[in-house]
Amino acid sequence: MAEGAADIGGRPKGAITLRQQAYRGMGVDADYGVAKDTAILWRITRLIFKYRLRVALAVGATIAAAIFQLMIPHFLGEAVDNALGVLNNNTITEAVAREALFKAALLLLGASILRGIFTLAHNYGGEAIGHMIAYDLRLAFYKKLQSLSFSFHDRVHTGELITRGMLDLEGVRMFVNTGLLRLVLLINLIGAGGYLLLTNDPLLGTLSFSFVPFVAWQSSTARLRLRALWLALQERMGTLGQIMDENLTGIRVVRAFGAEPYEIAKYDVASDDAMAIADERIKTRAASTSVMTFAYFVAMGLVLWVGGLQVQEGAMTVGDLTVFLTFITILQQPVRQLGLLVNSIARASTCGARLFAVLDLEPAISDHPDAKVLKPSKGTVRFENVSFTYDDENAPPVLHDVSFTVERGKTLGIVGPSGSGKSTIANLLPRYYDPSAGRITVDNVEIREVTITSLRQAIRVVQQDSFLFTTTLENNIAYGDPWADDAMVQGAASTAQIDGFVGTLPEGYHTLVGERGVSLSGGQKQRVAIARTAMLEAAVLVFDDSTAAIDAETERRIRSALTKHTAHCATIIISHRLGALRHSDEIIFLEAGRILERGDHDSLIAQGGRYAALFAIQSQDDVGEKAIQ
Ligand code: ADP
User: Fold this and answer.
1) Distance of CA 267 from the midpoint of ligand 1 (Å)
2) What pLDDT does 477 receive?
């Protein structure tokens, strides 16, 4: 578990399991040690160095802004002394005093304008570089997500990944301006300001600075506490996001079961938790601000008192006292900002750790260094004694010693009870997972020895879950071949028997589908998914229960239209409906990951085993259905 801050504000009710799942295998641990933090900050800084010219300009602007800011008290002091000189009319002549006053005012104005310009350049530079590294990291993060294997995505909740890709990335982005450049600014302001004051008048200088250590300490501890609370709040927000995400995705189930009150209560508990932490944040911030303001006014009072006495004694001018008071006013803001600096550094190291933990993950499945491009000649697929366990130490094996061969032009049917491992076979072929034992070959080449891209181009799987993107029907069908012309899209749609339905839509193939478009039925979605695959060349075609929501007659028409494709490939049909696979050259009956029976339809019926029993039940159902019709 990753959280130093996890216990702040109470444990999240009901959210532990989700978080534990989210962190498993993400490489984030509870160690926020200095060495680790420094390494992470250095890694972020190295990212920034990529833009070294911009960094140099921003740092230069920051230093210039500090220098001009430090000039302001001096010019103000001079102006005050000149003004007093004119008022008293006894130290300098009026004309000289007016000229000096005018000069001091001009210098003050000039210093203020230049300070403003350089501060603008410092802020712009910091923000711009921050956004540039955010762009780089965002892209790297997204690329990494594309490369990570299914076993990773099985474990880690989408909401958690989105939080890392958005909020944690933001923490790293802000480090440039609020961390690094502010550090340069504060070192200059506090360092040079302190030096000037202490060398000018050690006593008053010390008094002016008396509030600095206290406010810096107060602000830093408050910020660290705020950061811990912020982290805890992020966790709760992540949980809230997950609950809302699941609620919206499963909205039909929620409504069907009348579970709205339960869902609201679940959200309320998580929301309540988040509010308690937000409340604590407000209290911490308000308390620390009051304490810091008090300390600052105490220091100002001391300077005014001691300095005032010196002015009365004639040991210093009012202008010099003004310099001290203005310095305190100027220093107030940056000293308070020390807390922001500490916060920014702490936040960047935490956020960076969480972000880099994902970026540093090695995909469990990747190309072998000597991987060749698969060029299927015959397209013979072979499973040789394949066994498989999903990535969970306690889970039982899902496939045991499964062997079969499918040649080009031939069809293998796979049937078996739910959970028997049918889809797992479909998942192993394109290397979504690798077998725990045994080999899978295409034309006698083990699939681990070929590039994943070429493997997935050769083996096309129409999945059970026919996910459609929020775009037009045309784009969904041509997803695997964006250069396909209209005729190819329409040909694929006709093979999948979806062209008739598309013809009834006013915008035809340009109709938007998905969340913000036309809602399609389960069967229509499955047909679009079949069309998406029918567009593409393949050596091996796998249909993973991909016609479950399509009626038997349409399914028969799809099969017959697909023959022009399947004649040139090895085909695997996974279905619980025996009508879909009874004409297969070989059928295997799978149970608990083992092949229980195998043969063609007739021989399986003759065996009188599980397949024959299932066929008898389904035949009766068919007779019943026909009778009803
Ligand atoms: P079928 O397609 O025959 O219904 P599956 O191949 O989907 O069966 O699943 C076989 C077994 O593997 C089931 O017990 C299922 O719970 C488990 N399983 C499936 N997918 C995963 C996964 N991603 N992680 C862990 N276990 C899984």
Assistant:
1) 30
2) 93
Burial class (CB in 10 A: 0-12, 13-18, 19+), 179: buried
Nearest CA to ligand 1 atom 5: 421
What's residue 23's pLDDT? Answer: 42
Tell the burial category of 268 from Cβ atoms under 10 Å away from its Cβ (0-12, 13-18, 19+).
exposed
Give the residue among 346, 547, 566, 366 at the shortest CA–CA distance from 452.
Answer: 366
Per-residue confidence (pLDDT) for residue 249, from 0 to 100: 85
Which residue's CA is minimally distant from atom 13 of ligand 1?
419
Stated pTM of the model: 0.78
Mutate to test the pocket of ligand 1, among 156, 398, 433 (most ligand atoms within 8 A of CB): 398
In whole angstroms, what is the distance from residue 250 CA to residue 409 CA? 40
What is the pLDDT confidence band of residue 196, given thresholds at 50, 70 and 90?
confident
Å from CA of 493 to ligand 1 middle: 31
Antiparallel, parallel or unpaired: β 399-406 and 381-388: antiparallel
Cβ–ligand 1 contact at 390 (below 6 Å)? yes
Lowest mean pLDDT among 70-74, 415-419, 619-623: 619-623
- Please enumerate in sequence order all residues whose Cβ is within 8 A of that of 353, keeping only pairs 6 or more positions apart, or say none: 28, 32, 36, 40
> 394 in ligand 1 pocket by Cβ < 6 Å?
no
Per-residue pLDDT averaged across 97-101, rounded? Answer: 75
Query: Hey, what are 184's tokens?
Result: 């340069």
Whether residue 272 is predicted with pLDDT greater than 80 in this model: the reply is: yes
Measured from the CB, is residue 624 less than 6 Å from ligand 1? Answer: no
Indicate which atom in ligand 1 lies nearest the CA of residue 420: 3
Is the pLDDT at 494 greater than 80? The verdict is yes
Task: Please give the Cα distance from 160 to 145 (Å, whole number).
Answer: 12
* Structure tokens that stand for 102 in this block: 């005018």
Residue 537 to residue 457: CA distance in whole angstroms: 8
Helix axes of 211-249 and 16-23: crossing angle, nearest 10 degrees: 100
- Greatest CA separation found in the chain? 126
Residues 183, 282 contacting (CB under 8 angstroms): no
pLDDT, one tens digit per residue, over 285-317 is 888 888 888 888 898 899 899 999 998 998 888
pLDDT at position 574: 94
478 DSSP assignment: T
Residues 6 or more apart whose Cβ sits within 8 Å of residue 519? 513
Residues 6+ apart with CB under 8 A from 488: 478, 481, 535
Q: Supply the residue whose CA is at minimum distance from atom 8 of ligand 1.
A: 419
* pLDDT per residue as tens digits for the range 372-427: 999 888 889 999 999 999 876 677 889 999 999 999 999 999 999 988 999 999 99
Spacing, Cα 421 to ligand 1 middle (Å)? 6
Is any atom of ligand 1 closer than 6 Å to the C-beta of 389?
no
* Burial track 17-31 (b if 16+ CB lie within 10 A, e otherwise): ebbeebbeebebeee
DSSP class per residue in 498-554: -HHHHHHSTTGGG-BBSTTSBPPPHHHHHHHHHHHHHTS--SEEEEESTTTTS-HHH
Ligand 1 contact, 418 CB (< 6 A) = yes
